[in-house]
Structure formats: structure tokens, C-alpha cells
Amino acid sequence: MTSKSIERKAGRKQKRCQHIITSETGIECNDAPKQYLVVCNAGLSTGLKNDVLLKEAAIFGTVLQIILLPGKSYSFMKCKTIDDAISIYNGMNARSTLGQNGSVLYLLYCEDVPDSVNPWNHQVPPGLILIDNFITELEEESLLNRVSDDFTGHDSSLGNSGSMKHRQVYHYGYEFKYDTNNVDATQPLAMQIPDECNRLWPRLRSSMPNLSFQVPDQITVNKYEPGQGIPPHCDTHSAFCDPIFSLSLASGTVMEFRRPSDGRHISVWLPRRSLLVMSKESRYGWTHGITPRKTDVVPVNEGLTIVERKLRVSFTFRRLSFDKCRCEFTSLCDTYQKSQQETSENIEKLVLPAELELRNVHKVYDQIADHFSETRHSPWPKVKEFIESFPAGSIVVDVGCGNGKYLPLNDSIVKIGCDRSHGLLNVCNQRGFNIFQCDCLHLPIKSNSVDGCISIAVIHHLVTEERRQQAISEMSRILVTGGRCLIYVWAKNQAKGTKSSYLRQNKKNNKVDVVADDASSCNAKFCDGLPIHTNRTQFSHSDMLVPWKRKDETGDEQKTFLRYYHVFEEAELQRVCERVSDIAVIETYYDQGNWCVIFEKK
To answer: Which pLDDT belongs to residue 159?
Structure first.
């Protein structure tokens, strides 16, 4: 075929593609020289790979970025200069055979390239730290010799080594079990952490004094042959502490980080002898993996270059954790996922408590909201003192704020109220308070985001101890480290002279005449198996229904509404709080007929 016929064929092919590319991307493309190029007939859908395209283009000029669009049969190149683009165009158009089934490529210049996340031009995930040349060549050689001896001389019955689909692995300290993505802390391996690793941690503390970590007690060694990789994953949250370390030996590689919450993708080049520190968000909120391939495309000198992969050995250092994870990155958190699964599996067990709370707490407060609000005016002094103890600019949440009587306090801080009762929130809304509706068992507030919480006369309305503990855990979750929470609950045994206002107001000690619609099956003593408390008398049961009397619209006939209460024994509230692992009880006291606890987030 003559050069003219080649040019005519290229022109026809370019014109056919030009219309498609412009209509789909909005980018004009033609034969007028520009800094950007479009490959008209090769892309992801035809099997084109960025390293293959770069290898060919780099012969003729410098490429800054290659863009392969999902599902498209065309691709883009951003060149360093127009001269680079002209050189690549002249060298590849209708000449390079990188197309599908070896067909030639057809190129055009274009006005721009599509908006696309360049994995190299963004900050690394928060908490990710890369330390170049963390070890010397002699230290690298020593570690490689040690692991080479262990790989070749291991006893397979020890369970600390094996071959994965994509690589060889070896474990020290504890075996990482890939079937459960966890370790068995009760079965330490005979093969302990190599002595060669002990020198790393003083060096790391010296170079990064602000990095908080415990010396690792588990190592997984991965041996990658060229072309091997590891699937995207996030090290099990509850299995290991923060941070995790990865040491690259023998050669470097590209590690891909992806954030499930928004699909963000970042590529990080890990040089030989570098140490990667994955902490905080990069540890808990991103997956990391190595794509199986024999070459990597990496940035160099304002351009891209191809690096041939060689044998690589990585040391992943971890510290075992013996606690549940309480992070905010729920999509990758095994503790959260397990909790959700258990909640789903136990939903039938939760129906009765939830139904009781709905009928004898939530619906009741909606019905008595205005009358209840009229009886709640003055803040209790110790609650006021707690709120006013927060410095200016603090954020304090009132969980179960009722009519919001504590929200006007301390004008120097931000106060937010939440409650389940629509009726009580209407009262708050009329008063101009910052409020929202939610259940105290599931606070829609970001973890580690507020300085303080109060929960006054709320969790004694929860039917089971597990639900009361869950409410406390939720308040702990949203607190920052060092944040404080104050909880008040009704006391069962009330001290003489310091009874609650509910008990002090007893004058006639009459029995209850139940006439509320939702109590039609009750007699004067029990309803649904729960005792109905006699108004203004000492409590004789821990779980009961407490009457609230309200006159109807005519002002004549009284209606009685039954509210569920669990009244607390002395020290009971403190014991429930202490079962939440990340808090410390700093004060307990008795006030206004309530047991009270102040705790701090560790």
C-alpha cells in the first residue's frame, strides 16, 4: 500500500472516530497540532494497557498522562509540549500496531483531555507516610538472606508459610489465616520476630517522634515474582492496631489505594528499601493492593516512565489488637459489619423491647409533649455546671433534649439537641433551638466529632441492659478523645430528704385509675406483665410503668399514660458504663433522685 493510500485510509478512519469522540466527550479533535492526542481506535474496551501505550509513545516524545476511559475504544495522551505531541503523532499515526488484533493506531490532536482523576497528581490518603531509604543496603541484604533461609528450610507442619495464588507467604509471631482474614492470638508461632527487625523501631521513633505505635508482634512476608500482585484489601480492623508498616525489599512496586466511600483512586510508588506507614484513615478507610502485571508506569521528571518489575519481598509489620474497632469507616470495618449482622440475626429478640419502648415511651411523649414541657423549666444546678465547664467553641450534644431546657446555657459553645419525640422537638423548634430527630441508639453524628454530651433522664426508658449500653456506646463514639459525657437516670432507692420531685409531690398516695387507650388490657396493678407504679411512692421494682396524668381538652376528664422506666440500683449505671471499653468513669454522684455519671473518652 502506498503512503498516499495509507494517509487516505487513516483520514477516513479518523473522521469516523472524530464524530463519536466529540459527541461522547464534548472534546473537539482534528489534525491541527495541540499538546493533547487522542488514540481513535484503542482503549480499555479493546484491551489496551497504559504501559503498552506509554512504551510505544515514549520512543517519540514525553507523555505526562495517559487516560483510559472505562468501556471506551479510544484513549488520550497529555504530552509535555506541542513538539512532543507532533513527534508522537508523526511516529505513531497509522504506523504503530497496538490496536486490537494488531491493527494500526489512528491518532488526532485534541483541544483538551477528559476530566479524569490522575492517580499521581493528588495527595496521598490521610495518614499515609512513605519513608525513602529507611534501611541500608546491608540491612536489606541481611533481611533477604534471613527470609530466604526460612522460605527454603521451613517445616510445613508449622503452618507459618505457604503458596498463595499470587505469591509466596511466610509468617512470624502469629500466622495470618486468609480464610478468616484474622489471627488466632492463642496460638503464637514458634518462629518469632527476627532479631534483624529490632533495630527498625528505635530508628522510626527517632525519625518520627509524633508517630504513636506499639512494636509489632506479627510479620507477614510476601514474595512476589514479576507479574504477581495482591488483591485490593483492608487489613482486618479488629485484628490489628494502628498503624501497619510495609517494608519493600529487592525492588519497588506501585500500590493502588482506593476509598470505597467515593471511589477515589491513588497510585503510590514504593521504592526499594522504603517503609510505608498506613495509619488513621489510610489504615481504616482505604483498600490497598498491587495489580498483577510485569511493568509499572511511574512518574519521573515531569513525565511517565516504565519500570520492569523484578522479584520483590515485602515485610508487613502488625501489632495484634484485643479489642473491637470503633472507627468511623464502617464500609471496611469488620466490627461494624458483625454488629450489623448480629442486629439482623437478633431482630426478633429486639422486637419486644422496641415495641414496648414505642408504645410506652415514644408514643406517650408525643401525646403529653405540651403538658410535659410545662413541668420542665429550671435546669438542675449540677447539669448547668457541667455544660458551663466547656471552653468557648466546644460542641455539646444533648441526647434526649426534651423541651430543650439545657440548650440556652453557655452562649460561648455550640449546643445541639436531639430527641425521638416529634412533639417535644416541636417545642424546641418554637424556641429556636438547634435540634434534630433521632433515636439515642443510633446517633447520626460523625465519630470523634463533638466535645461533650449530656443525657438527662433518657436511658432509663430503654428496656434492656444491652440497649442501655448501646446508647452509652453511641455517645462515646461521637466524642473526641478527652471528650466528656454526663448521664442522669432515676434511682431506685432514694435518699431521705433528697427524693426526686416525682416522689416528693405525693399527697394522697392514691392508686392509679388507668383509662388510657393503650392500657385497655391493664388492671390497677399490672400491664403486659409489668407493675404499674403507685404515684408518688417509693419504688419497689426495677422495671415498671409510671403513670402520667393529663386532663383532656375539656379540662374535666383525666387520662393516664403509662411510661416505661428502669430505675437504677446504686453503682449500676457505673457498671454499665465501664463495660464500654473506650471510656473512663471519672465521677459518680447522687442528685435530685438520680444516679449520675461523668465519663471521659479515652
So the answer is: 46
What cell does 429 get?
A: 423548634
What is the distance between the alpha carbons of residues 272 and 581, in angstroms, rounded to a whole number? 40
Could you tell me the CA-to-CA distances from 575 to 339, 469, 472 in Å, in that order? 22, 10, 12
Map grid coordinates 487516560 to a residue. 67
**For residue range 441-460, what is the model confidence (pLDDT) as tens digits?**
999 999 999 999 999 999 99
* 481 grid coordinates: 478523645
The answer to whether residue 157 scores a pLDDT higher than 50 is no
The set of residues, in sequence order, having a beta carbon less than 8 Å from that of 508 and lying 6+ positions away, is: none
C-alpha cell at 214: 506499639
Q: Which helix (H) or strand (E) holds 551?
A: strand 543-551
Residue 488: beta bridge partners?
456, 596
What is the distance between the alpha carbons of residues 236 and 333, in angstroms, rounded to a whole number? Answer: 7
| Residues 362, 356: Cα–Cα separation, whole Å | 9
- Choose from 112-121, 254-263, 405-414 the range with maximum mean pLDDT: 405-414
Q: The pTM is what?
A: 0.54
Cα distance between residue 62 and residue 49, in whole Å: 17
User: How many beta carbons lie within 10 A of that of residue 179, not counting itself?
Assistant: 5
Mean pLDDT of the chain: 85
- Reduced to 3 states (helix: H, G, I; strand: E, B; else coil), residue 532 is strand
Alpha helices in 406-504 (DSSP H): 422-430, 465-478, 501-504
Q: How far apart are CA 332 and CA 259, in angstroms?
A: 10
Return d(Cα 104, Cα 4) in angstroms, integer: 16
Rg (CA), the chain: 33
Residue 507 pLDDT: 41
Each residue of 311-349: pLDDT tens digit?
999 999 999 998 888 888 888 988 888 876 765 555 545
H/E stretch holding 128: strand 128-131
- Residue 190 vs residues 172, 186, 262, 430: alpha-carbon distances, Å: 8, 13, 43, 68
CB-CB contact of 345 with 401 (8 Å): no
Residue 189's closest CA among 171, 174, 169? 174
- Note whether 462 and 400 are within 8 A (CB): no
Helices (H) and strands (E) in the chain, counts: 14, 31
